[in-house]
């Protein structure tokens, strides 16, 4: 995958390309990443990339000429790339969007600054606007890094395990199950016995139940639109029966609770 980031602060990406999974992807030949300085496409002596907005108002707007020139140059080099503008007004970024982008041959990111970019650039060059949350940052560089990091790890061959990404939170609509490592006993808290049993079927069952519990407690909204598997329905029915039994036991111990007194 080819990734090019258009920014007025390309030095912000110098360290980003050289660490962690992103570096591994580059070293393995899965990723070609570059940060392109928008100022190098400005034709005036002072390399100006912003100007006052028409109609008045606070702040500055990124000029269309340097961006258009930069985008045309990148599109010539990356004809199959999709162009994304990082913007708080964009489509909310999620795991599904990351998976969609991971299947692309190339991605061009436009990192806005100030009050944003000239609307004519959005209309003519941008394929999609992407937001990483309902808040405003000083520029699109950090959001671009977030998106690249999320996308790169989904490229086949980048992560060590074949199913490492497949088991991530949100990959199948559930939060990921809990994880444990050595020591077995940490300050009186022990690893669940099933994880030490060697019974792979039992471990898989435990992990599925743990994922369902976590999702129900932390993100119940994810379950509202979920189409449950037969195995998940069986788990939910078991929980329902256990809760019903618990309620009956509590009611039997406290008969006054049912009488309203």
Describe the structure.
With 261 residues, the protein is α/β, with parallel strands linked by helices. The protein folds into two domains: 2-152, SPOUT methyltransferase, trefoil knot domain (Alpha/beta knot, 3-Layer(aba) Sandwich), CATH 3.40.1280.10; 189-259, Trp Operon Repressor, Chain A. The protein has helices at 20-27, 64-77, 95-102, 119-125, 141-152, 200-218, 221-224, 230-253, 256-259; strands at 2-7, 32-37, 50-51, 61-62, 82-92, 106-111, 128-131, 185-186, 189-190. The strands form three sheets. It has a five-stranded parallel beta sheet with strand order 2-1-6-5-7. Strands 3-4 form a two-stranded antiparallel sheet. β8 (185-186) and β9 form a beta hairpin. α2 (64-77) packs parallel to α4 and α3 (95-102) crosses α5. The longest helix is centred in the C-terminal third of the chain and has 24 residues, at 230-253. The mean pLDDT is 92.
| CATH topology-level fold name of the largest domain | Alpha/beta knot
The CATH fourth-level homologous superfamily of the largest domain: SPOUT methyltransferase, trefoil knot domain
Annotation field: number of helices: 9
Low-confidence stretches: none
**Class computed from helices, strands and strand pairing:** alpha/beta
Summary keywords:
261 residues, alpha/beta, Alpha/beta knot, Trp Operon Repressor, Chain A, 9 helices, 9 strands
């Amino acid at each position: 995958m080819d990734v090019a980031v258009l920014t007025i602060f390309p030095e912000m990406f110098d360290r980003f390309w050289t660490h962690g999974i992103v570096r591994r992807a580059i070293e393995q030949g899965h990723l070609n990443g570059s940060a392109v300085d928008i100022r190098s496409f400005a034709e005036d002596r002072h390399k100006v990339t912003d100007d006052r907005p028409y109609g008045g108002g606070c702040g500055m707007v990124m000029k269309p000429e340097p961006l258009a020139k930069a985008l045309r140059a990148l599109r010539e080099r990356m004809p199959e790339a999709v162009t994304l503008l990082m913007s708080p007004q964009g489509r909310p970024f999620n795991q599904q969007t990351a998976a969609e982008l991971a299947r692309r041959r190339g991605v061009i990111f436009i990192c806005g600054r100030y009050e944003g970019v000239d609307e004519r650039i959005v209309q003519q060059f941008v394929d999609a606007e992407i937001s990483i949350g309902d808040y405003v940052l000083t520029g699109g560089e950090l959001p671009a890094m977030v998106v690249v990091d999320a996308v790169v790890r989904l490229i086949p061959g980048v992560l060590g395990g074949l199913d490492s990404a497949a088991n991530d939170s949100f990959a199948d609509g559930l939060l990921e199950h809990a994880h444990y490592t050595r020591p077995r006993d940490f300050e009186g808290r022990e690893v669940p016995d099933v994880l030490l049993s060697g019974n792979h079927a039992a471990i898989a069952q435990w992990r599925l139940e743990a994922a369902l519990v976590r999702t129900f407690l932390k993100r119940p909204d994810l379950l509202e639109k979920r189409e449950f598997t037969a195995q998940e329905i069986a788990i939910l029915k078991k929980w329902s029966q256990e809760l019903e039994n618990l309620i009956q036991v509590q009611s039997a111990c406290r008969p006054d609770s049912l009488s309203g007194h």
